[in-house]
Amino acid sequence: MKFERYGIGIAKGMALTFRHLFRSPITVQYPDEKLVISRRTRGNELVWFPLSCTGCATCAKACPQGNIIVQTHRGGESKFIVDKFELDTGRCMFCGLCVESCPYNALAMGLSYECAKYRRGDLVMNKEQLSVCPDRQPSAYSRPQFEDSLPEQSLLLYDRAVGGQKLTFLPWSKRKRGPGA
Amino acid sequence: MTLLDQFQLMLKGLDWPEWAVYLTPAIVGILLIIVFVLTIVIVFIWWERRLISRIQIRLGPNRCGPEGIFQPIATAVKILLKEDIVPDKADKLIHFIAPITVFVPILLIFAVMPFDQGAILVDLNVGIIYVIAISSISVIGIFMAAWGSGNKYSYIAGMRSIAQMVSYEIPVVLAIVGIALVAGSFSMLRIVEAQSIPFILLQPLGFLIFFLGSLAEMNRSPFDLLEADSEIVAGYHIEYSGMKFAMFYLGEYGVALAYAGIITTLFLGGWQGILLPPVLWFVIKIMLVFSVIVWMRATLPRMRVDQLMSFAWKFLLPMAVINLLLVAAEVLVLPAGMLWVMVLINFAMAAVLILLWSRLFTLGGGRVEV
Amino acid sequence: MPIKTEPFYLNVGPQHPSTHGVFRLRLELDGEVVTDVEPIIGYLHRGIEKLAESRTYTQVIPLTDRLDYLASMTDNVAYCMAVEKLAGIKVPERAEYIRVIFSELMRISSHMMAVGFYLNDCGAFFTPVLYMWREREKIIDLFDMVCGQRLLYNYMRVGGVSQDPPGEFWPALKKFLAEMPRYIGEYNQLIKQNEIFLARSKGVGVLPRDTAINIGASGPVLRASGVKWDIRKMDPYSIYDRFDFEVPTGEAGDCYDRYWVRILEMTQSLRIIEQAISQMPAGGPVCADVPQFFRPPPGETYGYIEAPKGNLGFYIVSDGSIAPYRLHIYPPTLINITALKDMMVGWKVADLIVIFGSMDVVLGEIDR
């Protein structure tokens, strides 16, 4: 006599959820614990190298939305001097087509993702805000020369231990509370 | 002789006026119960959120106070600060009275909950029947909330709720009668004192029926189609906000506490235990029952309304009747002092009955020809 | 004397926790039994087809990401295949294998999401969702390693893929493949025999075989009704004829079969990925040499693939300029929901949500 639907399915399911009580949670308590992001991340900003840029505006032609404005004037030795290199990060979808198309490796995606501003107008970046500097480093998206200098990504597959960021429960004394703490 | 009766005798001995002798123990008892209920409900809210989070391999609320114990207070403050919106097409009087009708009977159940040897507000000799009668009043409250909101979603919820809560009363009552047969009385104090072996071992089938029936009375998963978040977006309390919603919210956890207390009293031996003070054992057992309720909520999908009804009428009710007949036969036949035999017989019969009945039972409903 | 009753209209509106997206369903109820269903779409229309007419072929690729935003890789693959068919571009070997691996990973991720949210609609308060999202998080981490984004990848290009996966991708992928069968076993333990779930989904929302073929359904919805039709076997595109895999079908065409077909397809996808890793050439170019503003010859073509939701096709008309003259998208889910009226009438309100969840719709695709 075959018995079915007498409750064994429910019991098996409940046994599985009971087992999960003893596994450690996979939550990352941002901003106290931060994961190491991918090397090729297309973060929320772009990094411009003024020394390599020739003002050819290939990036402006490659953008699907027309976010980049390049304005130049002719300088000595038939070179262009870039007056205005403006990028609207509010409209940008960070697809990376501009970075891929630059023939002189003068543009790269950024690493930072904490770029919120209080006004929409502040999201339009001019060339000083886009230039490379110690706290605006490029990511390795389409720029393999930067790949070795960036740390490895922390993966859930390896229990997030790779990247030097094994998750622990932060003790109460080390947690910051409140917005923007 | 409950503790409050002894307190009353002591006051009479101190020559207090008549009305003070009558009122003071009552007020002291009521205040203690309200404090107990509100505190444990807050603990329940926190415990449920943390337990479900750990089952779902995530952290629960852990920011608001150490390990998040002030989170329910933050929730309560948030709810109180919200604007009380009454929809235009609602029936104003019914919309106003409904939360009170839902919440007050739940508080009344605690009048007969034994916390310790003799620590009970009123020792009614129909204790458990009083509980069932009072908890049926909240059904009217839910229907008033559903109808008075003027919203089609809550109207559907109201229709479902009447059917569900009325049909699950009967197996619950029959399971209780089985307990009362073994204990010999309906009074809650006597039932606890009669449990030399906890009744969960003596009547496993009765426990199962009562547990599932009380899940349905509480509108908790897997029978929570009253507030099915994915279908009728919050069911009967869609149009409530502010303090009225707080009454519903408290009422939901309050009734979970009440039924957990009843299950502890009837089946797990109430306040009996070794080493620790009895009140602490009572609270520990309540938390255990509540954890099982939360565990079921986290795991199981919910049933459809006609499947729910056929589960009550075609599965629980016949089982409850057969259980009652069995227990009655055993109480008649077996001599006193041979309770272990009853344990073995009852477990075997429970297993056989569930396996056999599941072959006969088909979950009803299907496609209706239109 | 018959009692005069009025029909009861209910609007399962655009804002609802379980229509996956902004989808509106106008119901006519008789008590709790549904007598008529009218789906109303268009709340997420963004004009992708019109926008594509003013962008070059490479610039359209981020737009196609946003169609079925839960399975962006396969959208990209379908579009790039259509353009390559139009222009006669040959994709290098290594790029073909990489495309297959990522399409199958995307299929696993999309099916996990579909099954998880189907169970959420049945009422199991998020627990299956979170268990499946743990594995989906691992897949998305791998995608993040390759192309830098977690949801909208913009990874495929006309003529191949944009970058070669880095060195640490392959050991991580192998570890994922080794672990995954055990987790699929856990999901089956949680769900497959659960009596409440069986009662909710067995026999509910049956789509008969002939109706499914007549309306042109595709994907797991069609295969669950008993039709063994998978474009990867019937009309193999790319290099799918080199792999050995099965096409799971159901028998009854109810919601349970649609769920079970998706679980079986996940295991088949794991097989395909293992074979692809072993057959892949070790080096070589990952993209054909295609100029930035390339002009395909004038003409029209229709390129279609087996996306996780069904048969996704792109119809491109070119007039020799740098932008397509007309781009039309054939979404599988739009055609699948034309069967809603047959499936839903006669069932109760609670079944409605379950049936809709088992169809696995994404509004981005329907409304474009």
What does this structure look like?
The complex is a heterotrimer of chains A (181), B (370) and C (368). Chain A has 181 residues and is of the alpha+beta class. Chain A is built from 4 helices and 5 strands. Chain A has a domain at 46-149: Alpha-Beta Plaits. In chain A, strands 2-3-5 form a 3-stranded antiparallel β-sheet. In chain A, strand 2 (68-74) and strand 3 (80-88) form a beta hairpin. Chain B has 370 residues and is mostly helical. Chain B has one domain (79-360). Helices cover 68% and strands 0% of the residues of chain B. Chain B is built from 14 helices and no strands. The longest helix of chain B is centred in the N-terminal third of the chain and has 38 residues, at 18-55. The model of chain B has no long low-confidence stretch (mean pLDDT 83). By secondary structure, chain C is of the alpha+beta class. Chain C has one domain: Cytochrome-c3 Hydrogenase, chain B (Orthogonal Bundle). Chain C has helices at residues 48-51, 61-65, 72-87, 93-122, 127-147, 169-191, 195-201, 209-215, 220-224, 231-234, 255-279, 332-336, 340-344, 349-359, 363-367; strands at residues 8-12, 24-30, 33-40, 156-157, 160-161, 299-307, 310-318, 326-330. In chain C, the strands form 3 sheets. A 3-stranded antiparallel β-sheet of chain C has the order 1-2-3. In chain C, strands 6-7-8 form a 3-stranded antiparallel β-sheet. In chain C, strand 4 (156-157) and strand 5 form a beta hairpin. In chain C, helix 5 (127-147) packs antiparallel against helix 6. In chain C, 53% of the residues are buried. The mean pLDDT of chain C is 88. Classes of the chains: A alpha+beta (181), B mainly alpha (370), C alpha+beta (368). Chains A and C meet through helix 1, helix 2 and helix 3 of A and helix 2, helix 5, helix 6 and helix 7 of C.
